[in-house]
Design a protein that fits this description.
Length: about 120
């Protein structure tokens, strides 16, 4: 998976980037078709609390997933985004499986009826 980390209005530390790499790479265990991850970090208003904004966009086969969280620290924001993306990926994967099962089941029904007609 290709990963791009962009920090706006500040310079991200190597430790923060390593944390992001570690957390976002764990998303691959929920869905294999992740092509690219784009992480954007922003400081909204430096004087206020909950001013660390993190957003993650995952480009996956046949779509994309997005999550954005604002909290007191970037680590907390990334954790929230990753949790939201885990749920989205699981739901997306189940949706794909149900579509495959429906087409496979429909195909077998058609195939069975054709075989019955041939034997008659």
């Amino acid at each position: 998976m290709e990963m791009r980390i962009q920090s706006i209005h500040f310079d991200a530390t190597a430790q923060l980037e390593a944390f992001i790499q570690k957390k976002v790479s764990k998303l691959e265990q929920y869905f294999d078709g992740i092509l690219k991850a784009e992480v954007v970090l922003k400081v909204v208003k430096p004087e206020t609390s909950k001013n660390k904004d993190a957003s993650i966009r995952l480009l996956i086969k046949n779509g994309d997933c997005f999550a954005e969280k604002v909290s007191d620290s970037f680590e907390e924001s990334i954790d929230g985004c990753v949790e939201a993306l885990e749920k989205q990926l699981v739901k997306f994967k189940e949706k794909i499986r149900s579509k495959k099962a429906a087409t496979t089941f429909a195909g077998k029904e058609k195939g069975d009826s054709v075989e019955e007609r041939v034997s008659e």
